[in-house]
Automatic annotation (TrEMBL):
Keyword terms of this UniProt record: Isomerase
Gene3D superfamilies named among the record's database cross-references: Macrophage Migration Inhibitory Factor (3.30.429.10)
Name of this protein: 5-carboxymethyl-2-hydroxymuconate delta isomerase
SUPFAM superfamilies attached to this UniProt entry: Tautomerase/MIF (SSF55331)
Annotated GO MF terms: 5-carboxymethyl-2-hydroxymuconate delta-isomerase activity
Organism from which the protein derives: Streptomyces xanthii
Superkingdom of the source species: Bacteria
Statement: the UniProt record of this protein carries the keyword Cell division: no
Transmembrane helix found in the keyword field: no
InterPro entries per the UniProt record, alphabetical: 5-COMe_2-OHmuconate_Isoase, Tautomerase/MIF_sf
Length: 157
């Protein structure tokens, strides 16, 4: 269920292996944060980026934001942030400058809990889906659909 947004400078587009990063990030987030479900990863190449106050304002930038359902400790969020930063640097590629592991690129990561979250469509278990179909055909709620609703609530959907 994690939502990930990756913003990066346009100059990194040719060297940043986004697909490999997304695949490795999914595994990392699921293991490190105890998350379930699928990561939704959005990549956005910025039209312009600047590192103001530095000697070279044209320094490339990559920023990752990971948003998780609430309930993780600050320590878990901090450890995940450090691991994502390390992973990001390894996927930026040799064209990113320096030693080929993201040197020369300003990298940052924010891992935060979601404040409010809504999802559509929700995934239903097979039993819940069958109960819902039964309820909609009959025009009234059956015992099965009540059980299915409870199953969805317990599953966090």
């Amino acid at each position: 269920m994690p939502h990930v947004t990756v913003d990066y400078s346009p100059g990194l587009a040719g060297t940043f292996d986004r697909h490999a990063f997304a695949a490795a990030l999914h595994t990392l987030v699921v293991e490190a944060a105890g998350s379930q479900g699928t990561c939704k990863v959005f990549f956005r190449a910025a039209t312009e980026t600047y590192v103001m106050g530095s000697e070279d304002e044209g320094t490339p930038v990559a920023h990752v934001e990971v948003a998780l359902l609430p309930g993780r400790s600050e320590g878990t969020l901090a450890r995940l942030s450090a691991k994502v930063l390390e992973l990001l640097r390894t996927h930026l590629g040799p064209g990113a400058g320096g030693d080929g592991i993201g040197c020369g690129v300003v990298c940052s990561v924010e891992v935060r809990p979601l404040a409010a979250y809504s999802l559509y469509p929700t995934r239903l278990t097979a039993r819940a889906g069958a109960a819902l179909r039964s309820w909609t055909r009959s025009g009234r709620r059956s015992r099965a659909s009540g059980a299915a609703r409870g199953a969805r609530c317990r599953a966090g959907r």
